[in-house]
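Entry type: protein chain
Record version: 2
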Amino acid sequence: MPSRLVTVLILTVSAGAIRKVGRASVASDPAGTGKPHLLPYGHFLATRFAGAAIVVSHDTTWLKTPNGTPGETLTIRQPLRSLLTVPAVGPVEVSAHALDRFGQRLCQLEPSERWRLLRRIATGARQRVEPPINHAPAANRPGELWVNPDLRWGFVLVRQKTRPVMVTAYAV
């Protein structure tokens, strides 16, 4: 029987709060961090890095550059968004809910594979269709249903002020 190669991504972070924010983003549990204002900053951990192991290390030796001088200071002013570039639509933000529901509907899909397959569905051949009545988004947030006919998956986009947001994905 052939063995299956498993690739695991391990993120090493410098503070336990980062790991807590990542876990709370996955569980959609803002109270789980003790710092709910940080939850938007961990959204990318639940989307782009879903399934990655997060390890806390207080080792600071990697902070120095090869010549021994301190590295640059990064200032984060807003959360990093999980974006896909969908042809004919442009940049689309992927909600954690959309990625979570996508993974639930594909029971055998590893969390680390969700982003890759969702990107393939969104950037491959697709067409805009009218959503069925039972799948239409709320009336106050009209959505667009885009379907990849080759892979038989669709996703719903809701237009926001800054960019469209993928709110869910399901088999069609």
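Comment: The helical segments are 16-27, 43-47, 96-105, 111-123.
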